[in-house]
Write a structure and sequence with these properties.
228 residues; eight-stranded antiparallel barrel; two-stranded antiparallel ribbon; mainly beta
Length: 228
């Protein structure tokens, strides 16, 4: 029992140090789902990024982070509906029904991006203790992506039909970016980064991304940024 109490006290005493290694950011991401057969489709989303510095020195840190993005992509078609059926041999036959809606068809497709990334961080906001005005980072990891694609089918006459859907993809991801500290009192930082995910799933899109985030400053006991 005594050992358990001592362990609990040690954990509680270490919470401030542990929490200081967590860094948070919020912002916007534009991603492009690209396939050779379906072209490029842009999506827009909100991003919440959390990272934990597993190693810290005066000049750099190594972090593990999850920049989670959720959003979607809207588009318009010519207004003609598509359908499909099975033929006598069990093949799927796609065709346009000939039915049209008033005006162009609006179709929202959702997008979710969940990468786990190990980054090497230098300079500004590599940690809360680094007071440099500018910093940069680079790293890689693995990601899951759910987003929009355009799939082309052949109709019974040999023509091409395009359907706008959403599909899953996953694969290795890399990113690189920079951070600019806001003010001498370290009132947060602006982070700009680019990323690329190479899909390992057959015929699924590769993902390009550009993000702009506001990195939150260290907060005091009452939730106010330290230094203000």
């Amino acid at each position: 029992m005594k050992k358990i109490v001592l362990l609990a006290i040690a954990c509680i005493a270490g919470l401030p140090v542990f929490s200081q290694r967590f860094m948070h950011g919020i912002g916007f991401t534009t991603s492009i789902d690209h396939t050779s057969r379906g072209g490029s489709i842009p999506s827009f989303g909100l991003t919440y990024a959390i990272r934990y510095n597993v190693m810290e020195t005066d000049k750099m840190t190594i972090s593990v982070g999850i920049p989670l993005t959720a959003g979607g992509s809207g588009g318009s078609g010519e207004g003609e509906e598509m359908d499909w059926y099975y033929d006598a041999d069990g093949n799927i036959i796609y065709y346009y029904t000939g039915e049209r809606k008033d005006g162009p068809v609006k179709k929202f497709r959702s997008m979710v991006d969940i990468p786990v990334i190990i980054n090497f961080n230098f300079g500004s906001f590599s940690s809360f203790d680094n007071k440099k005005a500018v910093g940069f980072f680079a790293g890689g990891g693995f990601a899951y992506h759910y987003g929009p694609v355009n799939v082309k089918y052949k109709d019974v006459n040999g023509g091409t039909l395009t359907d706008s859907i959403t599909q899953h993809s996953f694969g290795p991801v890399g990113n690189i970016g920079m951070r600019i500290g806001l003010g001498k009192k370290q009132n947060g930082a602006i982070e700009v980064k680019g990323s690329f995910m190479k899909s390992l799933a057959k015929r699924q899109p590769d993902i390009y991304g550009i993000s702009v985030l506001y990195i939150l400053p260290k907060l005091g006991r009452h939730g106010n940024p330290i230094g203000l």
